[in-house]
């Protein structure tokens, strides 16, 4: 089902315009470069419309939002929409504070989003469902994640990606479950944020957004598994560096060999 898109990203070298948070900026740029995409971060309201227009994907990430950044996101999002550029949204920490929740709701209301990617609590709170969240990390709530993802996809009319031990990708009809990845990813800040930008790079080169997002998730999970295997549990610092190496080394062939992707309902 997957393992055909990594080289497409490397050949097309899509420009990914990120309006992201101050924690993950460098890691996101390096991760996109390791994949073979072309990252740019641009935040000034005077230039975001122009940058979004020439990008192959726009990523909006509200991890460290301020009023100025939110204004820039709206301008960039509208420019992307007018120019047929896919917009990928990471609702970091939604549910933790009223400001985040309101901003996320404003973004999905005013910008047409191609993919929203978050942990289960972030997606739930974006559509007004109660789900405990601890800062930017998923809380310990339980529930039917596939049903929640489909509900969000139908309500927001977008592809929804909910990540965790298993990742759910859905447009409200088709459901893909990706079982790759490793708990070490939760020990490195920004692995979720970088993933959202990686989804942007794959969606930029794949016509079918569900397929593009699934390709991205499988590639990312396989890279993490290989990084753990090659660092022999030496620690999170070593893992972080080897993960970047593997984002560079993993090919479609490797993804085909190791991806665990199932269809859900
Ligand atoms: P959180 O802040 O709750 O950690 P996040 O935005 O950082 O959320 P994650 O859900 O951690 O994003 O997803 C980032 C990557 O980590 C995804 O590829 C996901 O599959 C992987 N991942 C997360 N938890 C696990 C786990 N327990 N086992 C395997 N892979 C995981
Ligand atoms: N605080 C605000 S944004 C951020 C932190 C720690 C990074 C969150 O990154 P991720 O990828 O969601 O773990
Ligand atoms: Mg995380
Ligand atoms: Mg996150």
TrEMBL record:
**Cross-referenced Pfam families, in alphabetical order?**
HK (PF02110)
The pathway entry for this protein reads as:
Cofactor biosynthesis; thiamine diphosphate biosynthesis; 4-methyl-5-(2-phosphoethyl)-thiazole from 5-(2-hydroxyethyl)-4-methylthiazole: step 1/1
Highest taxon, organism lineage: Bacteria
Judged by the first EC level, this protein's enzyme class is: transferase
Q: Which reaction does it catalyse?
A: 5-(2-hydroxyethyl)-4-methylthiazole + ATP = 4-methyl-5-(2-phosphooxyethyl)-thiazole + ADP + H(+)
The residues the entry assigns to the signal sequence are none
Q: Which GO terms describe its biological process?
A: thiamine biosynthetic process; thiamine diphosphate biosynthetic process
Recorded hits in Gene3D superfamilies, A to Z, give: 3.40.1190.20
This entry's Gene Ontology molecular function terms read: ATP binding; hydroxyethylthiazole kinase activity; magnesium ion binding
The EC number(s) attached to this protein equal 2.7.1.50
Q: Answer yes or no on keyword Cell inner membrane.
A: no
* Homology family: Belongs to the Thz kinase family.
What NCBIfam families does the annotation carry?
Answer: PRK09355.1 (NF006830), thiM (TIGR00694)
By what name is this protein known? Hydroxyethylthiazole kinase
Task: Name its species.
Answer: Priestia taiwanensis
């Amino acid at each position: 089902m997957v393992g055909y898109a990594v080289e497409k990203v490397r050949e097309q070298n899509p420009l990914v315009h990120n309006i992201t948070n101050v924690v993950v900026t460098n890691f996101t740029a390096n991760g996109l470069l390791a994949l073979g995409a072309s990252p740019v971060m641009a935040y000034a309201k005077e230039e975001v419309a122009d940058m979004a227009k020439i990008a192959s994907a726009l990523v909006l990430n509200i991890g460290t939002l301020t009023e100025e950044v939110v204004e820039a996101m709206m301008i960039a999002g509208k420019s992307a929409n007018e120019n047929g550029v896919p917009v990928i949204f990471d609702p970091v920490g939604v549910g933790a504070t009223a400001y985040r929740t309101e901003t996320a709701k404003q973004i999905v209301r005013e910008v047409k989003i191609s993919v929203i990617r978050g942990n289960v609590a972030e997606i739930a709170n974006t559509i007004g469902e109660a789900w405990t969240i601890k800062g930017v990390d998923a809380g310990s709530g339980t529930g039917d994640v596939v049903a929640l993802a489909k509900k969000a996809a139908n309500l927001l009319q977008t592809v929804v990606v909910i990540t965790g031990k298993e990742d759910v990708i859905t447009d409200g009809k088709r459901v893909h479950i990706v079982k790759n990845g490793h708990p070490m990813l939760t020990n490195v800040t920004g692995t979720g944020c970088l993933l959202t930008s990686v989804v942007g790079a794959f969606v930029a080169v794949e016509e079918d957004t569900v397929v593009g997002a699934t390709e991205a998730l499988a590639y990312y999970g396989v890279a993490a598994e290989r990084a753990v295997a090659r660092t022999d549990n030496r620690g999170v610092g070593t893992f972080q560096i080897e993960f970047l190496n593997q984002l560079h080394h993993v090919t479609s062939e490797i993804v085909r060999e190791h991806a665990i992707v199932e269809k859900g309902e």
